[in-house]
Predict the 3D structure of the following.
Amino acid sequence: MIEWEDKFSVGISEIDEEHKKLIDILNKAVFANEHNGNTVETLEILGNMIEYSRKHFSTEETYMLKFKFPDYQLHKNEHLDFTDKTIRNYRNFISGDYQIANEILEYLKQWLINHIQVTDKRYIDCFKKNGLI
Ligand SMILES: [Fe+2]
């Protein structure tokens, strides 16, 4: 489980809210996997996670483009890499590789914490300069 901490905040409320929601979905998947051992539910929540992460990446990328953020492409590549890996794992999971659940959830957790604290923090100055609060 990931508990929201102040150090995760990028100081922009719309983006913090979306990050909180992503963490919330991931925690639900971890709970379903650990406590219920419920693969159908875990899969469903992972599907929600993929869907919501796309919406969230699009929020960030739209602002990056609008504000001409210089590292837009690099940042977008991280999002694409995440989406590719997650969808591939999700498909393996669907086709019966249930052992992969723990691995997927651990990858999502590490990626999310790292991406929020390192990569996302790089756009803060640019976004704030352009009026986001
Ligand atoms: Fe991002």
Summary: The mean pLDDT is 95. The chain has one domain: 6-129.
